[in-house]
Every structure is written in C-alpha cells, then in structure tokens.
Design a protein that fits this description.
The protein is of the alpha+beta class and 256 residues long. It has two domains: 1-29 and 202-228; 35-201, Immunoglobulin-like (Sandwich), CATH 2.60.40.2230. 31% of the residues lie in helices and 29% in strands. It has two helices and eleven strands; from the N terminus they run H-E-E-E-E-E-E-E-E-E-E-E-H. The strands form three sheets. A five-stranded antiparallel β-sheet has the order 5-6-3-9-10, with no helix packed on it. A four-stranded antiparallel β-sheet has the order 1-2-7-4, with no helix packed on it. The longest helix has 52 residues, at 204-255. The two termini are 38 Å apart.
C-alpha cells in the first residue's frame, strides 16, 4: 500500500511538473525579440529567437522587415554558422530627420538563408542577432518576420498586438522603446544620448515565468500530500477491526 501511494504521488508530481514546463513554452513558441526593450538614441543588439514549430520540416529562412517611417540608420548582423545574411538598403518613401540630419535611405530588410544541409530542426530554435541604430525616439518598432520551412511552407509573423494586450495568433516581433511591453509595469529607460550602448536585458518575462513555475510546483506538492493522506485512511480504520476481532476471541475464551 505504501509503495503504491508513493507511486501514485510520483505520477501526480510528474504530471504537474510537465504542465508547469509546457505552459510557458507554449506561450514562447513564436518568433520574438529577446530582450524586447531598447533605449532611444542608442545602438542596440536585437536578437530574434526563432523556434521551429513544424514536426516534419526544418526552418531554412528568416526575413525581417525594418520600418521606413522610423528607420534605423545602420544594421549589421552577427554571423551564424551555416547561414548567410543580406541586409537591403533602399530609398525611403519620405526623408526622415534624425539628429538634425536628413536621411533619405536606410536598411529596410534583412534575410537569413540556411546553407545546404543546414536547418533549424523540429524541437530546436536558433537566434539571429543584429546591431541596429540609431534607435528612434518612438513608442515601439514592429518588425514583421517571415519564417520559411524546408517543405516550402511559409509562416508570416506580422500581426500587431492590440492595446488590450491579448496576443494574436502570429504576433510580429516588437521592440519596445518608450512604450511598455504588454503586462510589464517596469519603467523603460529612455535616453537621448547617441553614444552606442547595447540594450539591457529585460527580466520581466523571466520573472513571470519563474513565478508561474513556482506556483505550479507548490500545487504539485499539495497534490502529493493529498494523495498520501487519502491512501493512509484505510490503514487508520484497520485498527478497530483488529480490536473487534481480538474481543471476539476473548469472549470465546470466556465461554470455554
């Protein structure tokens, strides 16, 4: 009985832990920027985290569009083994004033392409980083991405997150500058300096995931305790039966 109780408790705990892990991972299963905050007037390292969501095909291409109304003045990329990258610079629809200078052309797109035999396989993810600046003094920058798979399928991550904060099915990677990320109450540091400074890491999402895991872990412990309590009840009721049996034997002995 005790072994069975511990086995049952272990099964419940394992299920709870699996739920705790699966919940935050499901929310992360799309192309996103991590960290997703930067300071205006700086150069920032922007990392696109790309999970592979297909069970049968691998990711072989990623394309990211940069805005033309609040453009970056330059974009350089970090080499990724097995991948090539091309940054496209085009003439802007309208000239833009940046730090007193009139900008007529800017980087508008970057495309990463996997070499032959290279891919982000099922159950894997890859990070693609750029150094971009000058970060404009604006609320946020929406950077639509297109993910291409080895079977020819294409997924567009281009839906803006509404003011309600409810995430759409295919949210566009978003860099928050003066605006706060949905569900984040931590003030964003805004700088007017143009000295190149890499963006700081955001710990809000990590803290939220940690708290969620902690809560589910406590729930798992509570379930284990409940299972142990329920399985011990029959043992506690067995004592009176033994006493009753002994009493019967004693009575019988008196009659003899």
């Amino acid at each position: 009985m005790i072994r069975r109780s511990f086995a049952m408790a272990a099964a419940v705990a394992a299920a709870a832990v699996a739920l705790a892990v699966a919940t935050p991972l499901a929310a992360e299963a799309h192309v996103r920027i991590d960290p997703d905050q930067a300071s205006a007037g700086t150069y920032a390292v922007i990392t696109f985290r790309v999970p592979n969501e297909s069970a049968t095909a691998g990711t072989v291409g990623l394309e990211v569009d940069f805005p033309t109304d609040t453009p970056f003045t330059s974009v350089s990329y970090k080499p990724v083994p097995g991948w090539s990258a091309v940054v496209t610079t085009t003439t802007l629809p309208e000239p833009v004033k940046i730090n007193g200078a009139t900008v007529t052309s800017a980087p508008t797109k970057i495309v990463w392409t996997a070499d032959a035999g290279t891919q982000v396989g099922p159950g894997q993810f890859q990070e693609f980083s750029v150094s971009a600046g000058i970060v404009p003094n604006t609320g946020k920058m929406v950077l639509p991405a297109t993910q291409t798979y080895s079977d020819g399928s294409v997924v567009k991550w281009d839906q803006a997150t509404p003011a309600s904060g409810k995430e759409p099915e295919h949210p566009a990677p978003t860099l928050y500058i003066n605006d706060q990320p949905p569900g984040d109450s931590t003030p964003t540091i805004v700088s007017s300096s143009t000295v190149p400074v890499a963006s700081g890491a955001s710990t809000t999402s990590t803290l939220g995931i940690g708290l969620g895991l902690g809560g589910l872990a406590l729930g798992a412990i509570a379930l284990v305790i409940s299972v142990l309590a329920l399985t011990r009840r029959p043992s506690a009721q067995a004592a009176p039966r033994a006493d009753s049996s002994e009493g019967g034997e004693g009575s019988g002995g008196g009659e003899a």
